[in-house]
Specification:
Blueprint (H helix, E strand, L loop, with lengths): L11 E7 L8 E7 L17 H14 L2 E7 L1 H7 L1 H15 L6 E5 L11 E4 L7 H24 L5 H4 L5 H10 L14 H7 L1
Parallel strand pairs: 1-4, 4-5
Antiparallel strand pairs: 1-2, 2-3
Helix pairs in contact: 1-4, 2-3, 6-7
């Protein structure tokens, strides 16, 4: 089972993002403050969980957390800022929306920017080590998937209801066939070299 917290005796928020490697759509971040004694043997890095389990955990996390929030940075901001800055800004926006101000922040990965002078710790693979980061990964993933499923109705043909905007073969083949749409990240390499040759 994952650890409850990095530091004891303080209000600690876990942060994570989803969609960093996608070709389309926003990057989505979540911040979660769990009760100190929270216990869940299933909770883990969202990538290690089934879609059904993620949905079930989302309901529990949102009803059990002391405070939680989700925030989006859209593809135009990603193109303007770069994906690393956009991911961290999304985390800051999620932290802004918490109803309780944390005293310490733990972040999945190895990069973060100072937030309101609150101490923070970056944890590589933190979503498989700490419950609050894992909870944030589940919320970020499920909220982003929900957004991309809705977007698939408006921008049909890219198969976002299944690939969620990730660089899958079917997504790239659809870009060759249909071109890019307003949700694609223009600063990303949307096609591999062979497809780029075919496209031209």
């Amino acid at each position: 089972m994952l650890k409850n917290y990095f530091l004891g005796n303080c209000i600690e928020a876990g942060c994570d993002e989803a969609g960093r490697g996608c070709l389309a759509g926003p990057v989505v971040a979540a911040a979660v403050i769990l009760p100190p004694a929270y216990c869940n043997e299933v909770l883990n890095d969202s990538k290690k969980l089934s879609e059904k389990t993620r949905r079930e955990l989302r309901v529990e996390i949102e009803s059990t957390a002391l405070s939680w929030a989700v925030a989006f940075v859209d593809n135009r901001e990603i193109d303007r800022l770069n994906i690393l800055k956009a991911s961290i800004i999304a985390m800051h926006r999620a932290l802004d929306k918490l109803t309780t101000l944390p005293q310490h922040i733990i972040v999945d990965g190895n990069k973060f920017y100072n937030y309101k002078n609150i101490p923070y710790t970056c944890v590589v693979k933190g979503d498989s080590k700490f419950m609050s980061i894992a909870a944030a990964s589940v919320l970020a993933k499920t909220h982003r998937d929900e957004y991309m499923f809705g977007a698939s109705k408006k921008f049909a043909g890219y198969n976002w209801e299944h690939n969620k905007g990730y660089p899958t073969k079917d997504h790239r083949e659809a870009i060759v066939k249909l071109g890019v749409c307003e949700l694609h990240r223009k600063s990303f390499r949307l096609l591999n070299e062979q497809m780029a040759i075919d496209f031209n």
